[in-house]
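The material for today's practical consists of a large collection of protein records. Read left to right, the backbone structure tokens trace the chain's path through space. An example says more than a description, so a record of this kind follows:
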Amino acid sequence: METSELLKKVRRIEIKTRGLSRNIFAGQYHSAFKGRGMAFSEVREYQYGDDIRDIDWNVTARYVRPYIKVFEEERELTVMLLIDVSGSREFGSVNVMKKEIITEIAATLAFSAIQNNDKIGVVFFSDKIEKFIPPQKGKKHILYIIRELIDFQPEDTKTDISQVLKYLTNAIKKRCTAFVISDFINKGSFKDALTIANRKHDVVAIQVYDRREAELPNVGLMKIKDAETGLEQWIDSSSARVREAYQEWWQQRQSEMSDSFKKCRVDSVSIRTEDDYVKALIALFDKRN
């Protein structure tokens, strides 16, 4: 992409998403995520009403009476954006591609983090870790992230969400809030990796998908191509049975994904490319309060 065109796109996204984060999300973001990052402060004797889950069993055993760990809210959080850059993001049947919506959502979250004095970092992933941007503060850092969101070219086209979750668990030592922004078109299960990652960090899943991924149009014989594997095949979309089978597959896939999020205790939201992602994010933030 030409430098001048890239800078114009960066500026447009900055104006839109910075305004959203300042005028709409400021309060919701703060209440939804502040206080989720807790740092160990001290131990003291157990008092009636304390949460037994905070008991420090080592100290308790040493003094033969119950002691609990005391935590205090960290003044700043680290926010990580795990961005899917696989081939399937380059799709959109309405007026916008999934990649563009992912970029706007990520930029909005980044500005929200900065306005709350939090650090923001990014991991671009396909079926491997494509790029890691360490957490920092400041507008200059945000604009660099937006440029990468717009212009980054991955080496691979496939998706492996387990890989990025394992990377998050191992690479980020301090507890953080991590947004996984993806269409979650993933071969194989990522449930185990998600469970482990969410024990250490606060993981939030944001699915971005297109309506044509959920249902086939009745347009007759059509060639479809898997953007991640390159596999092509012809299907007869005029067949009601074909369309019904496809929709059943999609609904089962969504059900399995939602079930994984619930079992792993991960908050999630699904956003269609043509829908208002602002409302969806507000609903997600409200759910966490």
About this structure: The first helix runs from residue 3 to 33. The CA atoms of residues 51 and 64 lie 18 Å apart. The mean pLDDT is 85. The radius of gyration is 21 Å.
